[in-house]
Specification:
The complex is a heterodimer of chains A (138) and B (317). Chain A is an alpha/beta fold and 138 residues long. Chain A is built from five helices and five strands; from the N terminus they run βαβαβαβαβα. Chain A has a single domain, classed as Rossmann fold (3-Layer(aba) Sandwich), CATH 3.40.50. In chain A, helix 1 packs across helix 5 and helix 2 packs parallel to helix 3. Chain A starts with 10 loop residues before the first strand and ends in a 5-residue tail after the last helix. The relative contact order of chain A is 0.19. Chain B folds into three domains: 45 residues, no CATH class; 209 residues, P-loop containing nucleotide triphosphate hydrolases (Rossmann fold); 52 residues. In chain B, strand 6, helix 6 and strand 7 form a beta-alpha-beta unit. Chain B is globular, with a radius of gyration of 22 Å. The interface between A and B is medium-sized, with 35 and 33 residues. Strand 2 of chain A pairs parallel with strand 3 of chain B, so a sheet runs across the interface. Bound molecules: guanosine-5'-triphosphate and magnesium ion.
Chain lengths: 138, 317
């Protein structure tokens, strides 16, 4: 087989757990990551933490992006992190998008969330840190 | 009978059902990494018995929704099922948004289902270049039934015939004109036709039209592709679709076509792989510039240059 010279693309899971109805923001981020050359598994709306972690394992992603606007981040994100830890060797970095109060943000970072993007974050910023978190900074 | 001792450790973990290893080996296969190559070589003798059902058809006809419905149906019957869903890569960035998974609401703890999304990475024909090998990994991991969803471009994804034991062509009502343009390819590919979205008006008509076409086009092989109407919205026709797929699998066994089809697929695979190597070899040949010069100067035509080159290669052997 002809060896591929190009570097393997980064695989990233984008999920939007919780009950709030729209995923425009998550889709915009998914497309920006695609345009940066990544393979984005788009898991869609209303995923449970269990389904997100399962998808991440099956898809062997380098990175998970979670978008939450419903305010349910303190219920959902720690659960995702716990489940990821329970998976053998599951050390997939997680970043978060949404409106997260400072106090919550501090606690979530402590629990292991690697990056948090508020509504003002630029797509460029998100792409750059996605590369860095996946270990492919350039 | 047990080749287990000679399997590399990763292949043994794969056989033992380690899903992390399976997931990682799929990635390594997509990226042509050496460990996956070795595993694929080692497990090849263990493969070839799985039922591989390809679902192809134009954009948005409901391929993923049908797979979801089939998963439910099959799980109720205790079958283990793996799914590979292929989506296109952007020709500009090489990136991709893989969105089929949205439609699959597999129970998140069901160990008997495995779903994997693949980007086509520039490969044409509706699959990725390594989809076939990914299916072999899944089979070696114990999935004796694999559903494969093709890209679903405007055309018919003919390559599905190169991996599927049964190919299902999915269409929707009011695809009249499209069916005309697809026709040529359609009947070469379809073992089963599915008219999905049968809850929409025009489904009966579409089914009749297709049945007539299928009867006309019925090849000498003795299998006439059945036409099944389905609706994933209300579950209509899903058992019938599965029954049609199984009927085709039975036909393959009873008619002896299974072996003939596998021979055809493997012949194509080996020729294609040899071709890839040959092409790389030719493109790197140091005589290339010397051969092109007279063609560029319009002294000999490309066909003559190629013929002479080929003659020299044959003499050298
Ligand atoms: N009315 C109706 N709509 C359906 C049916 N099955 C699927 N759909 C809808 O059709 C749209 C596309 O469904 P998908 O399952 O994503 O189709 P697909 O062929 O996998 O699409 P691509 O992978 O993008 O080519 C969705 O909005 C579904 O809800 C059906 O039986 N009836
Ligand atoms: Mg689909």
């Amino acid at each position: 087989m002809a060896p591929r010279k190009k570097q393997a693309p980064i695989r990233v899971l984008i999920a939007k757990p919780g009950l709030d109805g729209h995923d425009r923001g998550a889709k915009v981020v998914a497309r920006a990551l695609r345009d940066a050359g990544m393979e984005v598994i788009y898991a869609g709306l209303r995923q449970t933490p269990e389904a997100i972690v399962r998808a991440a394992m099956e898809e062997d992603v380098d990175l998970i992006g979670v978008s939450i606007l419903s305010g349910a981040h303190m219920a959902l994100v720690p659960r995702i992190l716990t489940l990821l830890r329970e998976e053998r060797g599951g050390r997939i970095p997680v970043f978060l998008g949404g409106i997260i109060p400072d106090e919550d943000a501090r606690r979530l970072r402590k629990l292991g969330v690697r990056e948090i993007f508020g509504p003002g974050a630029s797509l460029e910023e998100i792409v750059t840190s996605a590369r860095r978190l996946a270990g492919r900074a350039s | 009978m047990s080749p287990a001792p000679r399997l590399p450790p990763a292949a043994r973990a794969l056989r033992a059902g380690d899903r992390r290893v399976l997931a990682r080996l799929i990635t390594e296969t997509e990226n042509d990494l050496p460990r996956a190559r070795a595993v694929l070589r080692a497990i090849y003798p263990l493969t070839g018995r799985a039922r591989i059902v390809g679902l192809t058809g134009p954009l948005g006809v409901g391929k993923s929704s049908l797979i979801n419905a089939l998963l439910l149906h099959l799980r109720q019957r205790g079958r283990r099922v793996a799914v590979v869903a292929v989506d296109p890569s952007s020709p500009f960035s090489g990136g991709s948004v893989l969105g089929d998974r949205i439609r699959f609401d597999t129970a998140s703890e069901d160990p008997h289902v495995y779903v994997r999304s693949m980007a086509s990475r520039g490969h044409t024909g509706g699959l990725a270049r390594t989809t076939r090998e990914v299916v072999r990994l899944l089979e070696a991991a114990g999935f004796d039934l694999v559903l494969v969803e093709t890209v679903g471009s405007g055309q018919v994804d003919v390559e599905v015939r190169e991996i599927a034991t049964t190919s299902v062509v999915v269409l929707v009502p009011h695809l009249g004109d499209e069916v005309q343009t697809l026709k040529a390819g359609l009947f070469e590919i379809a073992d089963v036709f599915c008219v999905n979205k049968a809850d929409l008006p025009g489904a009966d008509r579409a089914r009749r039209d297709l049945s007539e076409l299928a009867a006309l086009g019925a090849p000498a092989s003795g299998w006439r592709p059945p036409v099944v109407a389905t609706s994933t919205s209300d579950g209509t026709g899903i058992p019938e679709l599965w029954e049609a797929i199984e009927a085709h699998e039975r036909y393959l066994d009873e008619s002896g076509r299974r072996l003939a089809e596998e021979r055809r697929r493997l012949t194509n695979e080996v020729v294609t792989l040899a071709e890839e190597r040959f092409r790389t070899h030719l493109a790197r040949d140091r005589s290339l510039a010397r051969r092109i010069a007279p063609v560029l100067a319009r002294r000999i035509d490309p066909e003559t240059a190629a013929r002479r080159w080929w003659a020299e290669i044959q003499r050298r052997r």
